[in-house]
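Predict structure. Input: Extracellular metalloproteinase, 815 residues.
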Amino acid sequence: MMRRLLVASVVAAGLAGAFAHNTHSDSNQLRRKTLGFGPSHPHATYRTTPTAATSSFGAIREDPTEVARRFITDITKDTAIGSTFAIRKDSYTDKNTGITHVFARQMASFSPTVTRSSGVHPGDPLGLLAGERDDLHTEYCQKLADEMESRVQRIQERLFAQGEQVPMQQVMHEEQQGLDTLRDIHEWNCAHVETPFKMTAEGKFSASSEEAFSGQALLQFMIAATPNSGLAESMMKSPSDYINKMQFTFVHELTGESVTPAFVIDNVPDAVSPVKARMVYIQVPGDNSNSLEAVWRFEVEMQDNWYEAAVTVMEPHRIVSVVDWASDSPIPAPKEPKTLPPATYNVFGWGVNDPTTGNLTIEHENFDHLASPVGWHSLRAYNDPATVKSKSKDGWSNTTTTWGNNVFAHENWEGRNAWVENYRPDAGKNMTFHYAYDPQPTDKTEAMDEAKKFIDVAVTQLFYTGNMIHDLYYRYGFDEVAGNFQQHNFGRGGEEGDAVIMNAQDGSGFNNANFMTPPDGQNGRCRMYLWNTANPYRDGDLEAGIVIHEYSHGLSTRLTGGPANSGCLGWGESGGMGEGWGDFLATTIRSNSTYSDYAMGAWAANRDTGIRNYVYSLNETINPSTYKTLDKPGYWGVHAIGEVWAEILWVVSNRLIAKHGFSDSLYPPYPSDDGAVPEGNFYRPQEFTASGVKKPLIPKHGNSLMFQLVLNGMKLQPCRPSFFDARDAIIAADQALTNGENFCDLWEGFAARGLGPDARVDGRTPWGGGVRTDDHSVPKTCKSAEDPIPEPEPEPTPTPDPGEGDDDDDFPWFW
Ligand SMILES: *[C@@H]1O[C@H](CO)[C@@H](O)[C@H](O)[C@H]1NC(C)=O
Ligand SMILES: *[C@@H]1O[C@H](CO)[C@@H](O)[C@H](O)[C@H]1NC(C)=O
Ligand SMILES: *[C@@H]1O[C@H](CO)[C@@H](O)[C@H](O)[C@H]1NC(C)=O
Ligand SMILES: *[C@@H]1O[C@H](CO)[C@@H](O)[C@H](O)[C@H]1NC(C)=O
Ligand SMILES: *[C@@H]1O[C@H](CO)[C@@H](O)[C@H](O)[C@H]1NC(C)=O
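Output follows.
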């Protein structure tokens, strides 16, 4: 008994210690608070076989939206709710593949008697299901607490079973990361949420209108979300003070989802912009089926977070789900001239990952008619945040600074949210962004000033890298309709007004970076930090891999579940893959025709092995990660999960490179003036269908093909994908693009790291827990392929199992 108590207190001390100081020795980085949880829908199924069009004339081209409608009607007609649904307006046809992605939202009518004046109170039709599911979040938190308890037990066992053989320090070190992660998840997501605050019941506030009810629910959320504990206490003590100060503006809408009340709420404590609020139903799992719960859906922008939260309409206001649109990067253990010429930049060119792998060179502004038709420094005046909105619709803003249609880049030493007036370099009429970079070691007290001297280089580099990524991803299908980031969309569809705001040397932190991805039509926000890991400081803006990783959060978030849904990669395996794609794409971009292993963030972190547990390597001794690795302590955080996913993709990609060779440039050839894309040595000769229609262009080489399949896979996978879903989506993408010629190669790659067809997870938990089983086998149809490098020109592989995405009309279906 005595011994048990002793160990428990040691463990507690270890945890506190780990929290107070970062595991990275000389880092003063605080852990950013972030909430992320929601109901899991274990019943959800991913079906890829749509209802066949019935025609005696064989295959007919049909309006894909009609195919989708029929499919949804078919699979929902027998359900309790029936099949009332709306096709979302962010549905689109992918020009690259011809695949149409249709997103649907299930509708449930609110009673017309629920109006502003009637208010919302228990007994109303709105409340029909509320109150039944009080146990949901508690269960989530209980599981987390159990997990922590069993970790503590494990430490006890290790310490006592092995006596003095393993020093306590080493045991603590080995177990610390896992405990840290669990502790953070528990503290952030459970501490305030377990005891919803009954404002009315406690007589502290008496809500009499719908506005006030939404204000109450919002305050409940802010109490949980604010990183400022003093403010949280004050809100709990006198909620009415805060609610009375809020200003509610009722939003009238002619069309859309507007049968339900919507507000914009101003003066919300700790929010940096007015909060959008709308009443909706959310699906929560029940014992046998799902039920609906009426919630307020809030969009809350804060200094370091941008949340989409669902909080019950009924009191006590429970937070049912919350997604942070902000993604952290790795926290390692520790006016107008006449006509301007095209700009040039003295920067680390594309493919140079950081200052140790190349020198500054003069690079040119990209005028790719498809990706950036007017270059990087022009935007329509009416979409220019720096000009008055009333300007003529036809006017252009042509700038001599790092301000354009795709990216706004600038310093943000103050670490604030304001950005329009921030400093940015001005290249003058010649458009020459040419600055020298030679930082010198200094006293610790002067390190910051030394770094700031090179702000022109940092901002120029960030602007250049951001625009290059925009253009590259554009050419692989992250275009306007797919939800990309541009102020002006050239009439090509999608929502505009959403270039990426990129902060260089952001003063809100060190040794990190992050990216916030709201839905299409709202600016993405990227913050890059200085790294105090060396003298002189290292500037994250200069490490392309970090910038690419961050921008890729925008890519994966907008492509998964459709442009208007930013809530699909919030936590657990899907959140982890959100990190992993960024690592994989950054590594692919820096790699060359001679194979090498690569570390993430090695320069900025000043550590050869970088900021992950392992470098990305095909060698299983150097990087042993498999699917099963997710079971290990320390693998509940999204970055660790992402590292495993990136490694798996790296292995798969190199299989395709062995088969199809390597393209020295990932950029497809420039389009001609009419927008036609030449094949060059980049694409295979274009094929035509029997009826003479051009088939999609297929990248010729392994690395470019994998790049395309990964992006196409993101569009095909369901909302909140698991590793299995994302794997299947890549295989489905290959089926659609190449008729499945890489079916076996892809399976062999996935199977090499445990993600074969019989891989399993038992007892999955929302944050990524569960017990996984690796499978190294491949589907039966692939059994003959024993040699690692198949024939260069293999026969098209047999059609995969039915249900594996065998039709152009595949689309993700999710509830
Ligand atoms: C500004 O840029 C637009 C788009 O490239 C171009 O059409 C226009 O001529 C430019 N205006 C000036 C004054 O340079
Ligand atoms: C950078 O330039 C220096 C001096 O010209 C040269 O010695 C070095 O090899 C170059 N480094 C790289 C990575 O190209
Ligand atoms: C711009 O270019 C011209 C011609 O090359 C040169 O004479 C002039 O000095 C340059 N101006 C600036 C501000 O660099
Ligand atoms: C390829 O990349 C590796 C690792 O960055 C580097 O050592 C090598 O010199 C590069 N090879 C070529 C041909 O650029
Ligand atoms: C894998 O890495 C280990 C450790 O560095 C090394 O001993 C081994 O030779 C490598 N295997 C291959 C196939 O390169």
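Residues 358 and 380 are 36 Å apart (CA to CA).
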